[in-house]
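A reminder before we start the practical. When you read a complex entry, don't treat the lines as separate problems. The point of joint prediction is that each chain is placed relative to the others, so the output describes one connected object in space. Small molecules and nucleic acid strands, if listed, are placed in the same frame. In the example below there are four entries. Take a minute to note the order of the lines before looking further.
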Amino acid sequence: MAKSHKPTIYDVAKAAHVSPTTVSRFLNGQYQSMSSEARDRIATAVARLGYTPNRFARGLRSKRSGMIGLLVVNLSYPFASLLSRGLGQVAYPAGYQVITADFDGSVEKERQYLHMFSRGQVDGLVIQTEGKNRALLEKIAGELPVVLVDRNYGIPHTDSIVINDLEASEEMTRHCLQQGYQRVFYFTEPEEGIPPRALRLQGYIRAMADRQLPQDIMRVRKESPVEVKEALRSTLEVAQKQPTAIYTANGLVMLEVLRARNALKQESLDVPIGLATFDDPDYATALSPPLSAVNVPMEDIGRIAMHMLLRRFEGTQAEEQHIVLRANVVPRESTRTII
Amino acid sequence: MAKSHKPTIYDVAKAAHVSPTTVSRFLNGQYQSMSSEARDRIATAVARLGYTPNRFARGLRSKRSGMIGLLVVNLSYPFASLLSRGLGQVAYPAGYQVITADFDGSVEKERQYLHMFSRGQVDGLVIQTEGKNRALLEKIAGELPVVLVDRNYGIPHTDSIVINDLEASEEMTRHCLQQGYQRVFYFTEPEEGIPPRALRLQGYIRAMADRQLPQDIMRVRKESPVEVKEALRSTLEVAQKQPTAIYTANGLVMLEVLRARNALKQESLDVPIGLATFDDPDYATALSPPLSAVNVPMEDIGRIAMHMLLRRFEGTQAEEQHIVLRANVVPRESTRTII
DNA sequence: ATGAAAGCGCTAACAG
DNA sequence: CTGTTAGCGCTTTCAT
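Here is the predicted structure of the whole assembly.
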């Protein structure tokens, strides 16, 4: 009980009567290159000393950090936190830690974080990118495995995991129409070249065009309650004349629509209307009536992303992989059949 | 354009015609020990070569990692994601990265992560602990700065940031009573020794005792819809006879109550009732009527936690710090005056 | 104000 | 199967 400093590989080696090299091999699972006795002695020594390897020394030598970078638009959005959770579920048991950063929708911040992560900081990167740092991301993808989630910009050497935005959105629009709504208003944030936004809109457009119905596309910035409120007002005016539903491009826009509806109620403008949203936020089933939604398997995306990285690390995976998960339409009361 | 490997401190030194030592000083901001010319030459060289220090080499020598550990119960709960966001807002600009892990309410997992973080992995730790790994946490707090958030278990050498759970809860209960509800049912998860749960309950009890009103405490596990539903059923029975409100201990319990109410509506059991919740979840203002809530400054907690760590790193702060932030009652329509 | 030298703890050749 | 040796890139005495 003399030594106070943290035990090193040398302490273990001494205690087990082997060389540091053998201990190192042991730590890296190369059991075939040592006698079973040596293995046991080392195991005992490690346990007795409470030894754990120093990650910095390890990283310095081996060039591997045991860390994964996760870069998202906004950590407080359900997509990000569930993604992060799923990622961690696979990463930690595999011996990897996750460094998370949110760039708050700022292209400049995204760039900074990318730089930070690229300098040998992390072994792999999972990113929900804004798509504006294409060149940098492409360069990084040449140095380490990169998985694009949610938004696939087709950047060379990157893997990707997205959902079937277009088809699911089309299906949800169809669902609304089948329920008897003659008008379906689509509320979305401006596309700004962001694939899921464009695709979901596309899905809506397709379904409406298919039935030769008018397309009512309301582009609103969710940060602007006034914008949303005015868009809702004109929607409700229509709804007074014919059965109408509102279908929002994601759960955050739906929140704003619901808030705007509350505001309009204050002005005694209240018209029954169908509601549906992409995403299946936690509040969907708490609302009355419960909200029809497109369920996106966010945790799965995280888990799969990590599995993809692990395969890259093993070298098992050579070609780019592009996975499209299925998002499911979950019909609920908010679009119940009318007439 | 010859060298392909990442530039090291030696490359910079050579380019700036100084020794690696001076470059190191430069990198660590010790400008007073070099001529301004040397400083300029180094700055130029760093920029030109695109040099960034290797964190492993640095960590190996200096024993500091530049990383903060964040350990939470569940990363997908709003508390955690907002906390994480707040932490990052201060950490990154200060040159620290955040490693986040969620232990999913498992004491064993919490222990494992604590071990992982304690072995010189991180420079500081922010944790929402279950309080069951007291000894280990105390040991870790002896080795590095630890900030307890949300739940203060009074572990020696740890700082803490919590909110005024008791007072805020008492205030919210009072608010309900003032609005004319004769019964206020308090829905909470079993306390299990978790401070905020116990304190919020306490606040409710105080307010009720003060007015000599019956205490209706419904302990439910939010994972059990059946339990919540039955608790709600008996609550609604009372509500049929006298003006009643439900006040939930947090936003997740409220979600379950709302779901249960939907389920009971299916059974045609629907009684008007007041609603209030601790936490101010995003859906509060989306519901109709909007939900009265106790607003908890979660991002602030994260930001302050990081500031506390930074002060510890500087050595500016010696004594334990225990901060209590104020949570505010936000009255909304869901508890509008009745008679 | 500056530099030389000595490692931090580990792993990866290269021997045996 | 095992050990010796030489660094990885940086910071930190200790000189000057």
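Discuss with your neighbour: Chain A has a mean pLDDT of 92. What might explain this?
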